[in-house]
Amino acid sequence: MTLTVDPAVAGIVRAAWFVVDPVRVVLQDEALETSRRLATAAVRIRPEPVDTIVGVRTMYKRMGIDPTKTRPSSEALWRRVRRGDELPKINSLVDIINWCSLETQLPFGLYDLGRIQGDVTLRIGRDGEEYEGIRKAVVHVGGRLTLADEIGPFGNPTSDSARTMVTTATTRALVVVFAPAGLPEAIGQQAVQLTRERIERPAG
Questions:
Q1: Residue 146 belongs to what domain range?
Q2: Separation in Å, CA 111 to CA 18, 51, 67, 171
Q3: What is the number of structural domains in the chain?
Q4: First-to-last CA distance in the chain?
Q5: For position 182, which CATH number holds?
Q6: Residues 6 or more apart whose Cβ sits within 8 Å of residue 104
Q7: pLDDT tens per residue, range 35-56
Q8: Are 77 and 85 in contact (CB under 8 A)?
């Protein structure tokens, strides 16, 4: 599989990505939960990462999206934790991705590679394109950043599709970091390195 960034969005977003193959996904990992609880406690008292949050918001604005109405997934996690809630518990791999997204304040996408057909392109969604979301009836991606395979769109920096979601049956996964082009390239690569390390230890 290859992931290509369409030239029309190359000046807006950098896609940092990697494949985890094989991977073992379990419903809950107690050691992981302990680490995540410590991480959320630290986030509640540390300063807001202004540069990264502004960079992600700018990425949305350049696509014509108001980030205060359609929030990046990373900022939604940040706001959830800062108001005193814990990170959601889904399964071991999703939980690691949410943890990394919270700490880096970059939107992540996580996908079951076995449910992706052919190569992947990060592009602007076409008029009328949509998909069934995870716990959402329909996600409209026309005019928005979207990942698409031979079947069609399946993910974006706010909400991913039910078709490619990761479950305990997943054995191969694709991780994508939607890093704003306005931030240093190293930020996306550092997020990839951090995520790979955490996956390889408790979940891989």
A1: 3-203
A2: 11, 27, 23, 11
A3: 1
A4: 20
A5: 3.50.40.10
A6: 52, 74, 177, 187, 190, 191, 194
A7: 999 999 999 999 999 999 999 9
A8: no
